[in-house]
Design goal:
Blueprint lengths: L3 E2 H9 L2 H13 L14 H4 L3 H12 L10 E3 L14 E6 L4 E8 L6 H19 L9 E8 L15 E7 L2 E11 L5 H4 L5 H16 L1
Parallel strand pairs: 4-5, 5-7
Antiparallel strand pairs: 1-5, 2-3, 3-4, 6-7
Length: 215
């Protein structure tokens, strides 16, 4: 499991990397097409807007502590992003009393700008937390960024088999010291899925079968 820590955030701020990346992301993303995922009632994001299904999803695919109770999960989708303005295909939540934030974004098409978006979301959350903490004696937060790719095309650069992450992405002279977790449905095996309890696993099997029929 890959996460973005408060210390990572401070390092980015001190080196001014955070501002360079945001500016670069804004310039790149404003020319892109809006994802087709949108308000799709059958999307994975819609499924995990249910706390029970979110809990099962985190346990099945990322082995996040199964002791987390439903009352420990708080959705935070009012947190806005300057880069990723379409919030229908994203879930942001917090685990109470643990200072753990989780960002889950679903994309149905290959998005070469996804690194900038997930970086901006992660830094935005920690920046907001830092302003609101009011010197409380609590542990520093971490953000767990997760990208779910549900497209039919093969995403060769997802690197999801390499520890499930993309790390240290480079664009020209900008180095993004940032990683995010990838769930690429094309790389999920039927054998793994059949032992999972979540509705998300069922949905992935449905999508994989649909793509096989199209071929």
């Amino acid at each position: 499991m890959v996460y973005f820590s408060f210390n990572d955030f401070v390092d980015c701020e001190q080196s001014e990397e955070i501002y360079k990346v945001r500016k670069l992301g804004e310039n790149v993303v404003k020319y892109e097409q809006i994802s087709k995922t949108g308000k799709n009632e059958n999307s994975i994001i819609e499924i995990i807007k249910n706390k029970n299904e979110l809990k099962k999803f985190l346990k099945d695919f990322f082995e996040i502590d199964e002791a987390i109770g439903l009352n420990d999960i708080v959705y935070c989708n009012k947190i806005k992003s300057k880069i990723d303005k379409i919030n229908e295909n994203i879930v942001i939540c917090k685990i109470k009393n643990k200072e753990i934030f989780i960002i889950i974004k679903e994309i149905s098409e290959i998005d070469t700008n996804i690194t900038y978006k997930m970086f901006e979301h992660s830094t935005n959350i920690i920046s907001r937390w830092n302003k609101e903490k009011e010197n409380q004696n609590i542990r520093n937060p971490i953000v767990i960024p997760i990208v779910i790719y549900t497209g039919k095309k093969i995403w060769k650069n997802s690197n999801s088999q390499l520890r499930g992450r993309i790390n240290y992405v480079r664009f020209k002279n900008n180095r993004i010291n940032f990683s995010y977790n990838v769930l690429n449905i094309n790389e999920m095996s039927e054998n793994d899925l059949k032992y999972m309890e979540s509705e998300v696993a069922r949905k992935i099997k449905e999508l994989k079968n649909k793509y096989l029929q199209i071929n």
